[in-house]
What does this fold into?
Amino acid sequence: MKYVYLFSEGNKDMRELLGGKGANLAEMINMGLPVPNGFTVTTEACNKYYTDNEIIADDIKKEILDNLTKLEEITGKKIGNAENPLLLSVRSGSPVSMPGMMDTILNLGLNDDVAKAIATSEDNMRFIYDSYRRLIMMYANVVKGVDKDEFETILLNRRRAKGIQTDLELTAEDMYELAIDFKKLYKKLVKSEFPQDIETQLIEAVTAVFRSWNNDRAKVYRQMNNISETLGTAVNVQEMVYGNLTDDSLTGVAFSRNPANGEDKLYGEFLEKAQGEDIVAGVRTPKSIEAMERDYPNIYSELKDISKLLEKHYKDMQDMEFTVEKGKLYMLQTRSGKRTPLAALNIAVSEVEEGLITKEEALMRVSPENISELLHPTFNEESVKKASVITKGLPASPGAVSGKIYFDVESVKEASNNNIPGILVRNETSAEDIEGMNKAVGVLTVRGGMTSHAAVVARGIGRCCVSGCENLVVDEENKYMMAGSKKYNEGDEISLDGTSGTVYEGVIETTDANLTDNFKKFLSWAKEVKKLKVKANADTPKDAKKALEFGAEGLGLCRTEHMFFEKDKIFAIRKMILARSQEERQSALNELLPMQQKDFEGLFMEMKDLPVIIRYLDPPLHEFLPKTSSEIDELAKYFKVSTEELEKEIADLKEVNPMMGHRGCRLAVTYPEIAIMQTTAIINAALKCLKKGIDVKPEIMIPLTTDLKEFNYLKELIDKTAEEIMTKHKIKVAYKVGTMIEVPRSAILANEIATKAEFFSFGTNDLTQMTFGLSRDDARFLNTYYEKGIFKNDPFKTIDKNGVGKLMIVASKLARQIKPEIELGICGEHGGDAESIKFCHKIGLNYVSCSPYRVPVAILAAAQASLEGR
Amino acid sequence: MKYVYLFSEGNKDMRELLGGKGANLAEMINMGLPVPNGFTVTTEACNKYYTDNEIIADDIKKEILDNLTKLEEITGKKIGNAENPLLLSVRSGSPVSMPGMMDTILNLGLNDDVAKAIATSEDNMRFIYDSYRRLIMMYANVVKGVDKDEFETILLNRRRAKGIQTDLELTAEDMYELAIDFKKLYKKLVKSEFPQDIETQLIEAVTAVFRSWNNDRAKVYRQMNNISETLGTAVNVQEMVYGNLTDDSLTGVAFSRNPANGEDKLYGEFLEKAQGEDIVAGVRTPKSIEAMERDYPNIYSELKDISKLLEKHYKDMQDMEFTVEKGKLYMLQTRSGKRTPLAALNIAVSEVEEGLITKEEALMRVSPENISELLHPTFNEESVKKASVITKGLPASPGAVSGKIYFDVESVKEASNNNIPGILVRNETSAEDIEGMNKAVGVLTVRGGMTSHAAVVARGIGRCCVSGCENLVVDEENKYMMAGSKKYNEGDEISLDGTSGTVYEGVIETTDANLTDNFKKFLSWAKEVKKLKVKANADTPKDAKKALEFGAEGLGLCRTEHMFFEKDKIFAIRKMILARSQEERQSALNELLPMQQKDFEGLFMEMKDLPVIIRYLDPPLHEFLPKTSSEIDELAKYFKVSTEELEKEIADLKEVNPMMGHRGCRLAVTYPEIAIMQTTAIINAALKCLKKGIDVKPEIMIPLTTDLKEFNYLKELIDKTAEEIMTKHKIKVAYKVGTMIEVPRSAILANEIATKAEFFSFGTNDLTQMTFGLSRDDARFLNTYYEKGIFKNDPFKTIDKNGVGKLMIVASKLARQIKPEIELGICGEHGGDAESIKFCHKIGLNYVSCSPYRVPVAILAAAQASLEGR
It folds into this structure.
């Protein structure tokens, strides 16, 4: 078993073994790019470390040291050698990127002798003792688990004593003394001397990186991102290069294309006289890559060439780290770059057009959730004009959000739990803030550039972010921020424009996103590939229009009850519900009929010859009842009864478990006149459209069916009503009658119900509620289930394949046995969830239906499902 | 195809074809008993009548008339012949008895000529014109569908004109004139003459009987009694004999044993100078059979012999109709006799002891529901002593009930729907009252004997009934009754003792029934035969004791929440629910622990070495919360918060759909300390009993499990808690951990859950709710579903085999695949329902559990299931 690989022995396809960073370093070495040499200790070594009870086996230690010897040969340098010392970085690198989650140690290989030998000039002395004191602090912290605070205090005290602001002003002498002080503090805290033996340093550093695989924040990150616990991390041991060595040294990060919008132009930032960590930490605000083009044209040109080479090689946009030591460029990392949804889409489309990747590959490059984020609204232009600007920062992650400001993770989490949109405001973010960023609608930081922690994470999770607002003063402890003399306290409302970097006071209205040409092109590719039909849930012509724009192939769910909530209609429906006789009820329904018919006409006119599924009245009737006393009074007057009497009747309609009460088709069974009215409205509306030459396709959907007899009772009622109207008008409407499958019983009896139903729509919201015996409105306790690892996902977000999914499979099979051509689909929340859509594809449904804004998401998910199935 | 059978061509096994009455008349003829001769038109003729659009085909008409000729030959009489006329009765008789539901015509064969010819003496004249005018009225009513009222008015007017009280006082001349008047009225109402042609009379009468198969009350009766619509009725055409002919003529009904208590003694009543209909109608109160023994010893003796002969022949207690014409006994009907539950049991046991039937046959003779009624409570002796008697009537159907009085069916139905026990008070009942009797807790009538409509129906449906309270005056229209000068209005409370016939004022406390030796013997036979174990649901030692007395083989469900409703405990549990911290919650649980432990000790001590299934806390927590303001104040004081604050917290706990909310094992997952407390209480209690030498078998049941991980989380918690206690005490308790299967998901995933669960109990109440998506508390609308024939049975009473049952089968199979020895049972309402128990037997469950009072019912149902499966 081989546990250690020289970079020259690896390649990009070995990421499982060498980690992403190691595999790509190897690949770059073999491509002949300027990469400091080194070797990688494998993920298998990490896993063995854990199975061996957190001890590195002797044979692996030996293999590491053997490779160290080889590295000495390759570089011509020797560890611990005062003349020509080999200095090393030790970095983690797991198969799946977990940025900032694990530990790193730099400058390894320094000890008293080496430092002294190198400190031949003033410059060298300053540099080497700066490096040495950093090593001591990092080693104490990472290897020995000691807090950095006391080291930082020593540094601070020295600055104060000398009356200076930054470390750059410290002299070589200062650095030397700091190194001595750090060594003393190390001894005090660790209770042993800082190790002078370089091999000891190396083995301990590797151990520390292995250990950091299991630190708390890494575990949380893996849980959040569904990363397996068993992957392990590799450790990359690499010759140090110094971006902080001389005036012509620098360090930076670059993307081969713009990760915010996908523009094909080198993009990034750099810091002069700095080490890579300084950029990521966001301590100093770096310069943009344009400054490099101006100030270091040769380096810029070399970097740009390498960038293009790597992009072609990897067939994807690259995120690179580089360092320039004494004017020479070194590549330290390359990987597929994180990008905004907009960039993901634009890059995928342009890479297809450049011939770099196929359409199918492009479709797999953009996640359905990204598509959804592209439909993010932007601020309403008029409103923006009126809004007052607080400050401007960097456009770190796009979006337009308003919310209340919070200065710590806990508060933003609490706000989110109470459905209050929160904006997390921090001086800079770190790994500890990820959960809060996830719960916030937006993130605002004082420090940090476009590639700072805040920016990278926010883009990754699609959160709006403005970073680097350097003229804000944030007091995290006392929970306020100052913009000039203006103070904003916790809970104050602000708005962030993540595309421009502007921060506004108060809440700003938003408008919907427009679809770009690239977006349309991309969706058209997805449509060519997908098998599932994608329909939309829409109750108004406006929503139907939006759905069509987004590519819907019909309406999968029109909730007729939503049409009843307008002032006129709600009064009529209240009269209907509280009617004292069938006559009174009929008279109220007669009032509703023309209104409802007009609603349907509007939908049909919009959808033309596409199928429109109309669900009959579904919710418990008491949802429509008056709540305010003025509403009750109005109704009491109409019925000529006392308010008390009406209140009593309203109270009588209240149910213990309305979700399982008098709702769905149970309403139409008890009050058939409702179904008759709805059928009349549909058929009349359809006739009107037919006469205008529109080939309407209404499909009537019966909700909450539990039994064939129940379905039949209503189907016969519908057919009779429709027949009468059609006979009278001498035109046939090609309507269908189908049902929701939303209680377990109808899934189990799908073979019976399929004998009469022409289509099924799985109502997975209710089906999930009934299958779990879990009311969505009362599921607050599910948080405990996630925390305890009992449930992994919210079953209301992603279909519970094991339980609810099994019922869907059973129902589909039973139905198709009886009626192979029956159309099967789903409507409800799951119809817009990518994972659920893929499940629907897999079990052979014909369509999914979701809200108009999710239609493009569903189209892409359906396409991906189809590609994954190939 | 033969559509008509002479009695001599039939036998008792042909009831499908000849109907019950026809088959038994044939059997008696062939046994050589004195039966007026006749023939039967088959049920197939009836069904053909309906398929032929309600016309009797010519060939069937011919067959009827051919048999009429044969009957003339057999009897030596001729129809329409003035000298020796053959007079006929035409009666319905379906394969399943539907007493009083269909039509009958008597005295058929009379016309002007025949009547005139017979009227040779004063007596004959009175008799024959009485018969003739009855025929005319009955024919008008039954064949021509004319109301009887105007005929009755003519009769009434004549009585008034002559100043007499009863028809008996009318003279021969009166009868003659009445017959003439009736004929005139007939012509006026029917618009044609009363038919003088006897063959026409006969064919029309047969048609009328066929038609009456489908009258409304017959349809309702069939629906209520689950009788198939396709059986059809036969028609029995039989020579008339007259109980009203001479002074030594009489008519009566008799049971071969006492139908109230099963005593082996001829039982019945008779009316002198009357026709059979007069008894059933309850117009005159008849004499008891003892009077016959005294007044007509020869007839009594012959009847008694025939009764014994029939009982031996049919191997069952017989219900007979007989008529004595001029001193000669004729048998008109025999059939298996309806009996009270007590009689059913006693007869079955004594028939086994007499060697008449086997134990297995006996077990099939008593319905499980009968067994339940045997456990009816009786009035508390002390309370009865204090109660004031209103009146005394006949003990028509046993039971002891209190309720509010109502004088019409609608009111008693409405009361029942509002859970108000109602007593239906009527002068006499008729078929129209059946639904009201069904909804009442008891029935009280002024007229009618032990075999009146009221008595027969009440016994049949197990309703308490006192009949023949002749000194009550009931005004049905004005809704009151008078007992002497005392007036009782609608809604006043009375009590009925159906065993003694006493009627009391007000409500009287009841005490539980005692088990007779016959009862115990019968149950012991059932236990020998049954395969299913029968356990009980009991939460207190008192209930557990009752369950043991009734034969329970363990406790299948102890609902721990029921233990919490006592004053001390409810306060502690409220503290637990509203605790602000885990510490506060723990402290409340510490208070509950010793109380709960004592509860379990009591149960274990009672149940000894029988298994006791304890279900962990199940209902939504807010069910325990204080409701009155004084309770809230008390709790607010304890928590040192304001009442308003506490009220807000209580309101926060309220759920939209509590049935699917934070309940069941979800409570223990969020508050593990509850499960730890309950486990501690169980194990501690078990240890105490073990130390006393009792081999306790506690089984811990987790409610509302949806997922294996959820079950495991709790099982591990339980095992850990138990292990710690057992280690400390150095004794092992042989406890088990299982789960309810009450949400569809756990049924679908039974194979996963069975890997860890040691037993399953199907919680069919909840499983039914979730499978149908139907809240039991909100299922008022189901009445519409029954009315419209969409649902046949209440799925909460009898398991929905098609839906819920299918899930149970799936779950059982999945579980047994994984763990063949897993114990499967059900608890909840269905566990005490005979049909559901039979289903449980059929799908191979191991046990059912039901309330203590249903245990004997379940034992018998289980035995019957086992016998039916042989």
In short: Chain A has 35 helices and 31 strands. The two ends of chain A are 36 Å apart (CA to CA). Chain A has a mean pLDDT of 92.
